[in-house]
Each structure stands twice: as structure tokens, then as C-alpha cells.
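Subject: design request, 329 residues
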């Protein structure tokens, strides 16, 4: 095939067609009509002298050549995009870039809120799409559908650019009226109490703290599993359950909920959060700028070793009555 005879714009259509395996959906992805995409497919078939997509029943599947082209075509487009973005420069005061970021609600709460406030001052026209972590996160990063992904170091994203963003320790959290939890807990007391555990991204084995405990042959009494770090401290209020969450999030919630924070009686390695991006964006000025924003926000985080003054925070209005009822029961 002579390159000068090939319309390079067809590579964009080829990428959409091979990934969607559906002419209409590929057209929707590119904002093109179904006849326009059918025409592009016909031209691609002529160029490659292969059907690329064939009908099997009511769906279309890739031919062997179509399968072989999926990754190379995607890589070519990503390299072109990365080159154009690096050449175009980036002025935060006027840019209208849209950045997509996947992160846990914990990271969004303690870091992203502050980072996006800083962005508002420097880049008022840059917009963001914040997405939860999930089973498609790796695929989305591979396809460069995400600009950034923030995930624990245990996740495998070796094919992409990454750097350590921050670390956090773990803390045991209980309702301030929980009479089974004092200033400290023994390992046996900790394991035997009812637990609310956080399981982000539908992992079958749980988060870092649960994975570590299983490795050390320890088992907690898991009574509630929640996909949200936000919900865990709320679910222990008014009960005799406890939860184990990151220290910075525990400190944040101790300011608004009747909670007491207790040192973990079992040493659990700190949580290490990594920032990942597709390698095609290594020199993207917008990415380099936002990574600097994140580092500035990390530097302003409270220390993970900080403890709330006075031990148990004062009750917010309305919670004291619940505790009094429990005391009388």
C-alpha cells in the first residue's frame, strides 16, 4: 500500500470501528452519520483488501487482520495526539482543555477538592470529569480515555507513566459512644469487634488493609462492606462497630461526626497512592502543569501522624441525644 494514497484521517475511523465493532456506535463516537461511517469502512476494506469487520448473526466481529490492527492503530493515534499536544503549548489562563481523572472518593475528598480550587484560580476555563475507580479503569487508561488515574501502589500500571503522589497511615474509628472501645485496643479486641470494611472498585479481596490482614492470617468480623470511604465512618455512628480508614480521612470526619480515633493494635503498612498517566502524555504541557498542581496540594495536606486535640471531638448538634439513649438502654 502506498502511504500517499491512504487518507490518514481514516485511521481515526478505523480505530473507532475496530473498538466498537458496530458502524452506528463508531459513528456516534466520532459524531458522524451511519452512512458516513459505512463509507469509511468500505474505503478501509479496499485499502487493506480485507473485510476487517464481518457479520456474525446480529453482531459484527473483527477478522484476524482486524484483531491485529487494534493495538497498533491505537498506539499511532496516541503518539500523534501526544506530539500535537506537546507542540501546541499550554497557557492555563486561556486553555479550555478537558481532563478526565479516575480516583477513589477518599482521594477526591482529601486532595482533589483543594487541587481544583487552585485550578480555578490559575485556569478558570479548564474543565474536569471525575470518575470513580472501577473494573474498567485499567482499560480506560490503556485507551487514553483517562488523563490521570490515582490508585494504590498495589495496582498494576507498569506500562504507563507514574509517580508516588502521597502516603497515608490507617486509623481505627469508632463511635464516641461505643463502650467496647477505649483509648486503645488489643489485637484480639480489634479482630473480634464488628467491622465496616471499604471495598473500592469491586475487588474480590478488598483494599490494602484487608489484603495485608489476610496475608498475615488474621480475620476480622466483617459485618458491613461498603464501596465508599465516605460511608464507612458514618456507618459506625450509633453502633458498636468499628472501621479502619486512612488517617487523614478519619481526621476530616472526626470534625463533623461523634467519632473517636484509636491507634491500630496491628501494624498495617501505609497506603501509597500513585498518580498514573498514559505514556503518550509524558511531555504534554497540560499534564505537566496539572501534576504540579497536585504536588502543591499534596504539600498542603495535614500530616498523617496528626491526632485530634483532646482525643474525642465534641459532638455535633443532634448526636448527643442518640448517645444518651444508648446509655439508658
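Subject: RE: design request

Done. Sequence follows.
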Amino acid at each position: 500500500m502506498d502511504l500517499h494514497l491512504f487518507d490518514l484521517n481514516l485511521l481515526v475511523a478505523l480505530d473507532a470501528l475496530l473498538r466498537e465493532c458496530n458502524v452506528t456506535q463508531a459513528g456516534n463516537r466520532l459524531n458522524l452519520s451511519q452512512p458516513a461511517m459505512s463509507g469509511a469502512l468500505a474505503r478501509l476494506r479496499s485499502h487493506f483488501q480485507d473485510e476487517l469487520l464481518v457479520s456474525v448473526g446480529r453482531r459484527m466481529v473483527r477478522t484476524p487482520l482486524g484483531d491485529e490492527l487494534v493495538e497498533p492503530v491505537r498506539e499511532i493515534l496516541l503518539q500523534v495526539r501526544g506530539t500535537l499536544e506537546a507542540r501546541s503549548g499550554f497557557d492555563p489562563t486561556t486553555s479550555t482543555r478537558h481532563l478526565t481523572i479516575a480516583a477513589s472518593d477518599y482521594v477526591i475528598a482529601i486532595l482533589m477538592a483543594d487541587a481544583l480550587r487552585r485550578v480555578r484560580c490559575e485556569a478558570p476555563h479548564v474543565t474536569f470529569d471525575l470518575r470513580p475507580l472501577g473494573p474498567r479503569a485499567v482499560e480506560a487508561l490503556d485507551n487514553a480515555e483517562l488523563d490521570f488515574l490515582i490508585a494504590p501502589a498495589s495496582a498494576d500500571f507498569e506500562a504507563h507513566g507514574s509517580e508516588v503522589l502521597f502516603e497515608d497511615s490507617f486509623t481505627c474509628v469508632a463511635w464516641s459512644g461505643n463502650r467496647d472501645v477505649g483509648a486503645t485496643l488489643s489485637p484480639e479486641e480489634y479482630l473480634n469487634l464488628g467491622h465496616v470494611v471499604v471495598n473500592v472498585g469491586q475487588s474480590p479481596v478488598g483494599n490494602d488493609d484487608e489484603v495485608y490482614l489476610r496475608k498475615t492470617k488474621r480475620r476480622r468480623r466483617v459485618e458491613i462492606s461498603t464501596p465508599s470511604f465516605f460511608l464507612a465512618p458514618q456507618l459506625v455512628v450509633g453502633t458498636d462497630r468499628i472501621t479502619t480508614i486512612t488517617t487523614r480521612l478519619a481526621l476530616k470526619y472526626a470534625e463533623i461526626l461523634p467519632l473517636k480515633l484509636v491507634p491500630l493494635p496491628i501494624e498495617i503498612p501505609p497506603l501509597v497512592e500513585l498518580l498514573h498517566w498514559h505514556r503518550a502524555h509524558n511531555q504534554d504541557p497540560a499534564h505537566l502543569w496539572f501534576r504540579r498542581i497536585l504536588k502543591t496540594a499534596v504539600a498542603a495536606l495535614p500530616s498523617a501522624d496528626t491526632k485530634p486535640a483532646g482525643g474525642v471531638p465534641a459532638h455535633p448538634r443532634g448526636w448527643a441525644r442518640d448517645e444518651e439513649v444508648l446509655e439508658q438502654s
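The mean pLDDT is 83.
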